[in-house]
């Protein structure tokens, strides 16, 4: 049998495998918390994820094509989820795009109410993170943000909006944002920046 990061014997002395196994455990916690919130509100986990995303992101990102990439599912899967949410009167279509063939989705007032009681599903994890010393929180965040960027560069993670992949980001001894015109400390790096614009140079390299 080949080596596996999930084999306790193979994890001995292999910190990278232990980290991956640990991340998988945390991913399971997210799924459990999301399922609990979904069942309590008569929704599917994906439907809750879509509602939360729509609530906090600009309209240009709230269309079927982008949502499919965002959550690594097929367009038909997103379309079905949108139909279900519309039937529940939680979202509405917005045809204000210049392309009359496409549409984005917006929250209804009822949808906003649901987001108000579901968007906190990951709070139990945050509560534990807050127990870590601030320097450990910053070190953990720095590692995660770099890992997310590298997974995106390798094509494993489809969508990311971190500073490291943005056209406004510069690295010259220090991290720097040309849009904000300021040095970025580790805690300033964003994972999901509203002003993010992809660095085309990175795509070609």
From TrEMBL:
Keyword terms: DNA-binding, Transcription, Transcription regulation
Domain HTH marR-type: 16-153
Top-level taxon in the UniProt lineage: Bacteria
Any one GO molecular function term: DNA-binding transcription factor activity
SUPFAM superfamilies registered for this protein in UniProt: Winged helix' DNA-binding domain
UniProt xrefs under InterPro entries: HTH_MarR-typ (IPR000835), WH-like_DNA-bd_sf (IPR036388), WH_DNA-bd_sf (IPR036390)
Database matches in PANTHER family: TRANSCRIPTIONAL REGULATOR, MARR, TRANSCRIPTIONAL REPRESSOR OF EMRAB OPERON
Name of the featured protein: MarR family transcriptional regulator
Organism: Marixanthomonas spongiae
